[in-house]
Structure formats: C-alpha cells, structure tokens
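The following block was generated as part of the benchmark described in Methods. Ligand: zinc ion.
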Amino acid sequence: MIVDSVLTNAKAYWRNSIVDCSIAVEGGRIYKIGKETQMPKADEKTNLGNLLVLPGLIDVHVHLRDEGKSYKEDFYTGTAAAAAGGFTTVLDMPNNAPVTMSTETLRNRMQIAARKILVNVGFYSEFPADLNEVQDIVAEGATAFKLFMASQVGGLNIDDNRALKEAFTKTGESGVPVAVHAEDKAFLTANEEKLKQAKRNDTAAFLKAHTEEVELKAVERLLKVTAETSAHLHFCHVTTEQGLNAIVEAKKNGRAVTCEVTPNNLLLSNDDVARVGSMLLMMPPLRSQSTIEALWKGITDGEVDVIGSDHAPHTLDEKSADSVWDVKVGVPSLETTLPLMLTMVRKNRLSLEQVVRLLAEKPAEIFHLKDRGVLEQGQKADLTVVDFNRKFTIDASKFHSKAKFSPYDGWEVQGKPAKTYVNGLLAMEDGEIVVKPGSGEVIRGDHA
Ligand SMILES: [Zn+2]
C-alpha cells in the first residue's frame, strides 16, 4: 500500500494528550496515526518539525457574504481568511443578499461557493415564510437554521410565538439544529425609539439600546417557545451572565440547548467601545469587565459549548457611518481567533484541551459534521498545524479577508497557524494560500 502522504515529526493532540507521532493520509482521510517506523510508504512525505497538530478547527459562526454583498467578502477571500486562521470548516450565515431561506437560494449559494471555496463550508438557512418548506431546505443540504430575533430577516414572523413553535417543532422532527441570535426585537426597538427621539446617535446610545435585558428576554422567550418541542436550540454569541445562567439551567433540566461565546466578548469591554468608537459595535454588544469574568467562568466550568468567531466583514465606511444607528455591526475575526485563544492558553485562562473542545469537537458534535472534529483514524484529514511558540503582532492590513481592520490590530500574540490541511490537501502554508479556488468541500447537512 502506498498512501497519498505521510506527515512526520508531529506533536499531535490525540486522545486528550500531546503525542509525538506521524500521520498517514489517504483519499482525504486519516489513514493511520502512529510511530514513523509504522507508517506505510507514501507518495509524499512532509516533516512537520515538531509543530503542534490539532484536529481541523471549525468555526460555526461565519458571514462569508458574496453574492450581493461580495464587496464586503466573497467565498474566496472569506475561506482564504479561514485557512490562514487555521480553520478547516466554517458554517456560513444566511443574512445575505438574497437571504438564504429557500431551496433555490441555498442551491444557488452552494453552486457559487463550490467554485471558490478553499475550506469546507456548511450552510445555514433562515426560516422560510411557509414552514412546509423546512423539510425541503433540510433535504437540499442545509447544515442548520439560523433565527435572527433582533429584527425581521427571514420569512418567519418573529413576533408570532405560535409560528416560532411550529418552526422549532419541524426542525426538531428533522433533527437539524437551530442557531439563534438572542436579542428581543420588541425590547430592542422600544429602547432605540426612545434614544432616537432624544436625538442620541453616539456609541454610548447603541450600548444603552442593547441592554442585558434585551438578550435575557430573548433567551427566556426562546426557551419557553421550544419547551414542548424536540428542537436543538443553539444560542449564538451569549454576552450576559443572566443569559448564560438561564441556558445552564435549561441544560440541567435536560433540554437540548447549547451555547457559544465569541472571542470579542471574552477580550474586549464596553470601555473599549468608549475608547475606540464605532468599529467595536457589534450585536449583542461588548459588556462590562464583570460580565467578561462571568463568561470566562462559563468557559472554565464547561458551560460554554462553542467559541464562534462571528466573522462579520464590512467596509471601513460602513463601520464609520455618521449615525450609530447606521453603523454595520461586527468585525472580521477568522484570522485572529486562534492566535488570541492560544495566547489565552499561555495566560492560563483556558487549556489547550478546552480550545480543541470549543473549536473542534463540540462544533462537529452539535452541527452533525460527520467525520470531523477529532484526530482519529478514518476521520477526514482536516488538520490545523500550529507553531505554538511563535510570537507575532496582529497586522490587519495583511488579512486575507477583504475587511482589513481589527480590534486586535497591533496586539502581540503567541501561537500562529503554520499549515492548514483540508481533506488531506495543504491549503495554507506560512500564511500563503497554496491551493486552487474550489478545492474546499461544500458540506451537505447529515441529520439522519
Ligand atoms: Zn453573526
């Protein structure tokens, strides 16, 4: 037997410890993990020089844009950013132009993506107006549904609890998870109206509109609406202690509920918004230092399931609109998440084991990404190779993303993605993309 390739001198994260080993790859899958002397013959041999090998990282919260929003990001630049940031699989959010919320929009998006992507991409759909189409969208290959509760994005009327319940009943039956942006539209718009009437359009007003209550009310409402369904409810970017507590409580009661936190909400505070300005506006917003500590505790205690980057590219003009109500929310994050998290490992905020759990194992488990998320024989050969010792300065001007700005521009970090293997293929090496557009795989949901 001659396999496609053998990677030697790896320090691989294997079965909860770091082992010196070699990895044989055949047909896009891990053929064998073991000693170099036990490796089969290979067409190609690569010496990894004792770099750390993690299971390919998965980012379940990415806005790849493209189509009508390709001026912000497209499938090529977005997945180049993913590969450069050490991510082998990303899940694409549906708030595009057009919104992904039908079999046609999903199929079309997959077709466009297939020609351009460099890593594996799975797709979210928003809910359609006619909930009978949910099953068709699942059959078309949606990995999950996304429900945006802060304003009307999809076809499902978010003011109608009965319609919400029906949507969660249907997704529960088909086994497909639903990721929710938990900010309640009614509470949020009431706050915004008051501030707009008072002629407020500054960053402090934005934070004032997006209160902790806005998040908590949405979390509580969704937990209630889904209580009698078998839906898997995944809370995106939780930013409050009370919201997290409500989710933890639901878990204790046996509910199929999971949650995500972004690096932004672990590393930046509302003081930074006051200092930096509208670039740091995101939804939900950055919170106080005490909330940051509560979220870190959620990580330490294993209550947080996933770290999602919420990669949200925009133009700098969009980020610096005159009125705060016109500023586009979010920041590009695919190229900063892993170095930031590895730096926090150095600072003993979390363990490497937790990084792997939060960025690979749990994302694969929650979103049914078959044969991904762990390093094991027979799994897809998605590998994130990291130089854990390498110190560098984050330079947003060098991003592969079209959005060349970052709250972390100029930050000193330690731990750099060195190589990214996607289905056994080397996609990124030392920050350079080394594969052709279209070499990534469109992931079709597998909810059997
Ligand atoms: Zn998002």
